[in-house]
């Protein structure tokens, strides 16, 4: 395992972190035994950052039952504010209530990182002012060591780093074969501001996989991105390369993030993702696949409130 600094937090985190949405049954029922086996397989393979959320079913409660057996150097990051698919509460009282509940479930006095979960879906003004101050108050009280926000969109992630004093941000699907604006647009800001940058959705929320060829639509990805992913999958297959493995290689080796979150309860999938950290990339196959990458703005997805999609910082790009 490789370890990298998480911004200026002082934490050195594993390049692969363990995401617990599947562990909590968010995508289907998972037995406690299978969840436990996956978690400790990740730790045995060198993972030292566990990413969870109050939104992830019973993931926090399950982690609390396992916490006594985790090594002391394993960091726990949780999130609050997202209550359901389209239900959010980023009020200061709601965020405090969320973290205190998470701590009870996890059986801890504090967590290493506490983030607002998917801020794209609410007006950013209040989130960046009173809610951000509530985060800092929770940090001062010792209920969390570091605070952050998670975002889908590129403009929202930029604003979170530029307009607040977060320690960490997590961004979905911008550090992938389809779109590496995480490295190109977000990493320089993160470096300047000392923000720890977390990458999630290396397989672009499930479309950089062989099964994409059977998809006709996706619940989040745009139609143009889905078509580009299908072209990439066909090209990878023609090159004798597994598109999912190549996607993990790219995210772990070529994207400028401290860590990439991998969520799975399959130990074989987990081992494959971690193996992608060191496996040499077939650059000819990669170049052939990347030939299908769309221009930056064309590949962006419509996620969250339209009012949050401010692209004025890219004057040379026509949306």
- CATH 4th-level superfamily: NADP-dependent oxidoreductase domain
The total count of helices amounts to 10
What is the β-strand count? 12
The CATH architecture can be given as Alpha-Beta Barrel
Beta-strand proportion: 15-25%
What is the CATH C-level name?
Alpha Beta
How are the strands of the biggest sheet laid out side by side?
3-4-5-8-9-10-11-12
Mean pLDDT: 95
State the distance separating the first and last CA atoms.
40 Å
Whole-number count of domains: 1
What gross morphology would you assign? globular
Please give the share of residues in helix. Answer: 25-40%
Could you give a short account of the major beta sheet?
8 strands, parallel, barrel
Low-confidence stretches: none
Defining traits:
10 helices, alpha/beta, 319 residues, eight-stranded parallel β-barrel, globular, two-stranded antiparallel sheet, single chain, TIM Barrel, 12 strands
Q: Could you write a compact summary of the structure shown?
A:
The chain is an alpha/beta fold and 319 residues long.
Question: Could you describe the 3D structure shown?
Answer:
This protein is an alpha/beta fold. The chain has one domain: NADP-dependent oxidoreductase domain (TIM Barrel). 38% of the residues lie in helices and 17% in strands. The protein has ten helices and twelve strands. The strands form three sheets. It has an eight-stranded parallel beta barrel with strand order 3-4-5-8-9-10-11-12, surrounded by five helices. Helix 1 links the parallel strand 3 and strand 4. Helix 2 packs parallel to helix 3 and helix 5 runs parallel beside helix 6. The longest helix has 17 residues. The protein is globular and about 55 Å long. The termini are far apart. The relative contact order is 0.14. The mean pLDDT is 95.
